[in-house]
Design brief:
heterodimer; A: 119 residues; mainly beta; seven-stranded mixed beta sheet; four-stranded antiparallel beta sheet; 11 strands; elongated; B: 112 residues; five-stranded antiparallel beta sheet
Chain lengths: 119, 112
């Protein structure tokens, strides 16, 4: 089973609809992230959360909201979808940089993405 | 503005050949640089992570180098395989910021 699971994998919907993308992880990581990937552009951070009570805006949070329901679950919502939100969405997780003995840079572990099309 | 530029945009090589991908950045202050591999239809997978004090790091046939003075990094792939066909993404993080800057990626195609 995948360590970071995103559902659904594909979604087609209409303008104005409310959409929720879900992410769950079995890695035991405290940190979770939502990214958006558009053709020809780098990934851009939408929101991130460092624990259940922590929510932070990324560089493109307008039009999106998130909920961290548990350590292992982080969902992304589009309250009223618009066509320019059509993109590939990725959830990612990472461990704390402090290992108890030293700081170390931790890689992000990505899910396989949700392809969202808004008509 | 923090930026990460990758070159070439795309590259086609024959199986067994070596290749080098480039990453130039203007992120400041520099914290770390990561290379990811993204297969078609999959999420990115981490290859290497380097901090300011590291100038080379290997992961199997992948070797990343970092020149913090010129703000350049390269990813060298040795003896390419068909499975190396993917997009390779350079990501640079600034100290004090949790928002990394992603490059647009280099699309590598390995032909038999």
């Amino acid at each position: 089973d995948a360590d970071v699971t995103q559902t659904p994998r594909n979604r087609i919907t209409k303008t104005g609809k409310r959409i929720m993308l879900e992410c769950s992880q079995t890695k035991g990581h405290d940190r979770m992230y939502w990214y958006r990937q558009d053709p020809g552009l780098g990934l851009r951070l939408i929101y991130y959360s460092f624990d259940v009570k922590d929510i932070n805006k990324g560089e493109i949070s307008d039009g999106y909201s998130v909920s961290r329901q548990a350590q292992a679950k982080f969902s992304l919502s589009l309250e009223s979808a618009i066509p320019n939100q059509t993109a590939l969405y990725f959830c990612a997780t990472s461990a704390l940089p402090w290992t108890g003995k030293a700081y170390s840079n931790q890689p992000q572990h990505f899910g396989d993405g949700t392809r969202l099309s808004i008509l | 503005k923090n930026q990460v530029e990758q070159s070439p945009q795309s590259l086609i090589i024959l199986e067994g050949k070596n290749c080098t991908l480039q990453c130039n950045y203007t992120v400041s202050p520099f914290s770390n640089l990561r290379w990811y591999k993204q297969d078609t239809g999959r999420g990115p997978v981490s290859l290497t992570i380097m901090t300011f004090s590291e100038n080379t790091k290997s992961n199997g046939r992948y070797t990343a180098t970092l020149d913090a003075d010129t703000k350049q990094s390269s990813l060298h792939i040795t003896a390419s395989q068909l499975s190396d066909s993917a997009s390779y993404i350079c990501v640079v993080s600034a100290g004090g910021s949790y928002i990394p800057t992603f490059g647009r990626g280099t699309s590598l195609i390995v032909h038999p």
